[in-house]
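Appendix B. Extra example for self-study. Work through it before the problem class; the solution is given directly after the inputs so you can check yourself.
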Amino acid sequence: MKRISGGVLHLVLIVWAALVTLPLLWAVVSSLKTDAEIFASPWSLPDAPQWGNWARAWQEAAIGRYLLNTLIVVGGALVLVMLLGALTAYCLARYDFPGNRLVYYLLVAGMLFPVFLALVPLFFVVDQLGMLGTYHGLILVYAAYALPFTVFFLHAFFRSLPSATAEAAFIDGCSHAGVFFRVMLPMARPGMVSVGIFNFLGLWNQYLLPLVLNPDPDRYVLAQGLAALAVSQGYRSDFSGLFAGLVIAILPVLLAYLLFQRQIRSGLTAGAVR
Amino acid sequence: MRHGKYRFLIGALAPPLLLYGVFVVSPYAQAFSLALTDWDGLSAEAGFVGLSNFADLWGDKLFLAALRNNGFMILVVPTATIALALFFSACLTLGGGTRRRGVRGSGLYRIVYFFPQLLSVAILGVLFQFVYTPGNGLLNGLLGAVGLGGLERAWLADPASALPAVTAVMIWSAVGFYVVLFTAAMESVPVDVVEAAVLDGAGRFTVFRRITLPLVWDSVQVAYVYLGILALDGFALVQIMTVGPGGPDNATEVIGLTLYRSAFTYGEFGYASAMGVTLFFITLTLTALALRATKRERVELA
Amino acid sequence: MAGAAAVLSGCVTAGGDDPAEQATGAVTEDNPLGVPEGADLEVVMFDGGYGQEYTQHAVTLYEERHPDATVTHEGLQKVGEVLQPRFVSGEPPDVVDNTGAGRLDIAALAEAGQLTDLAELLDAPSLDDPAVKVRDLLLPGVVADGTLDGTPYFLNYSYVAWGIWYSRSLFESKGWTVPETWDDMLALCGEIKDAGIAPWTWQGKFPEYMMDPLQSLAAKAGGLDLVYAVDNLEADAWRQDGMLAAADAIHRLVTGGHILEGSEGLSHTEAQNAWCNGEAAFLPCGSWIEGEQQGVTPEGFDMAMAAVPALSGADALPYGAVQGSSSESFLVPAQAANPRGGLEYLRCLFSGEVARGFAESAKAMPVVKGATEGLELSSGLASVAAALEAAGDGVFGYKYRTWYPELAVEVDTATGELLAGRTDPEQWSDRIQAAADAVAADDSVAKYER
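Solution. Structure tokens for the complete assembly:
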């Protein structure tokens, strides 16, 4: 009885694993086929691997440059939003002051607001500040739009931390900033790692913001570049090149994940499972 | 002792709130005032039209279809994703007998299940457009291979299956993430507690319901909020994948697409803003409900 | 003098922040449009199926004529998303190719005073021959296509014809002839099906593609009166006999089982590739398809376009009539920093030299007269040129799609349902008529007349 249900369990788990990996493997295989082979059958393997597809995506679609742009913008925004978000969440969670609730709800409401409604007014703001199509402009906007979630997440985390250590530090004469940076922030490290990974995945996927605020093709981030590749595909048949671009875009994040998967998953879960 | 509290608060909160005020609050506020105008997005001036944009929304077939479809996603995506993730997590942690932690190869499953979370929506859309393609698409091929050829169809071209097909992509991409969250939460259950329960004659399901589920409930609530936001969007997937896009027969129209089309295709920027404002009030209501649901937790922790 | 007037009108209507920046140079024989020397030029073009070669080519010509100018040239896929904010903030580029799915609404731009009157360019001497005005180099209808309320605001570059595409080699090997009436079409479809090939496939994800043969059939049956009634949002325009008969004709492809299974779920590229692979005999498309399919068309496929068959013997237009229009809309923003340069760039672009290059690199018909003469045309382009020549004055086009995009969305949705077999021609026309009536009754939508 137990053995049978164990077998069924395994089968279910294997089926889902197959469902998850099959489209990805299929994309990799397709990226090495010719267009004609792609249309002949979804199952067939390429006669000879068409590495030219990858070269075309890398050069003509400039995937390499987009990757670098993305790393700069996402990296900068990540550092900024983690610092500002932790400070905000900490203040709101651990201090009582007039307007505390108001600020908190204002921030949390921003998390749920549809971003593209604000796009045109936002463009003016960024334009008037002279930050259109600049790295720092994108970084600031990314950070501003990632702030609500960061605060929402860390707020709960800071509330759950015990007060005793902080009290002791205050008695030892530590300043408010000192308590935050030396006591509370290290204690919040699991939460920081967790929300940091959330934010990375979110910023990595940003699409609407760069589309309007980042018009210079030399500064395109990966999502923009991929969209360009996908749309070009719509106008000029190049399915194999499109698949190659997809695979190149997937690979770095996938490899980073495979290398650090244990740390990433424990980081993600440390925040949620206290 | 706690002198300088307000100096610290001002120093700490001013930069983030300035950033938030300039780049988030002010554009949204401007969008609110735009919703009361007939601005076409191009002319320097906009005429004030009061609430007529909002009145027009309730006669707009596309907008109503979008509300319906996002409503469907809100109902299905969080529930299905969380149910699947809980099921897989339970299999991974409770399966394989009580002595061992989880079934054989559970580590590998956890690595693999997370893969979809690493794909951006643009990639997802393009990939699944091909998966759903009639004729030689991956899904139809798969069904044919396992003897279910009768189920083959043009998934995105049938109003009955198009929205479920898009919704399935959302679920497909989200499940693994929550499997990772939930398995970790479940593993924080001490082994001896489980063993004691089993000695008392509790079955796997009872262990799950009585011991595991209450302990992951906190994570489930977080998941619900996050997945709710995901289900209110859907713009990128629909835009890339579907017939029309938004079709067939408006079956996959989502609020984001209606808004985007009104603004960028019709140049009805005021009207599009009114849609955004309506969406805002919907989401605000849902947030309030979600916060109320989590309030219980905060009292316990205090 | 004329230059000053254009600059003035630009500043009065546009309300830009600083019109004084729009400098003007001396008008000379070499510089008829008075381009200020040393002024930079920014060209933003839609990077679609025609590629960027021809707009780059015009940049080269411009730079030769104005060596002190720095020209930036950028190709975009979604023109509207990038340029919309720039128009609003009064900092548009000097020339825009406003084309593609994400293009800006030109009528709205014109209404907002954002466009430069191109009359001056049209009356300027052409680059090829100073005795010939730019206006006289263009194919008939091109200036009219770009005219809104009596003012020429944009010029289209590519001439597109719509028809039904087939493989010459396939038809020769099977002994099939392209039908000239719809009855013959249905008969041939039966024959094709017996040969184990699907008679038709179409780009189901974008029902607009199948609407083209449908509305061509309707135009042939009902003539230009039918077309104008539709465009002018007249009562019951979509219930005219010709329109219903055309919908019924297309619907017969569905009821007869003449469409490749699953076509309603195919993207345009997927359907076109299925057709190129010989899975289906006919495919509706515009003349751009040859360039689009360049990389995947099998050797010896020999694609060709035929006019849509006649609906009946009593048609108002002859069999050879084709739906045609110019596309790739080039315009000069009124608030551009260098609008004189923008006009001069268009003078370079609409020259015989660039147009010939366009026909060769983009495999499409340019709007410049005689540009394809003496060129060895590819199979598809040659068939398009022949179809246009056979049509003569019988070239028609609908305007509702550009005038009333809200209506076009509903037309496409209804057509998708018709082709999927979920509605019949009556329901199809009722549904579209309701949408057309709603647009006609909506005061907030600007109305046009033809």
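Self-check: Residues 239-272 of chain A form the longest helix (34 residues). If your reasoning did not lead you there, revisit section 3.
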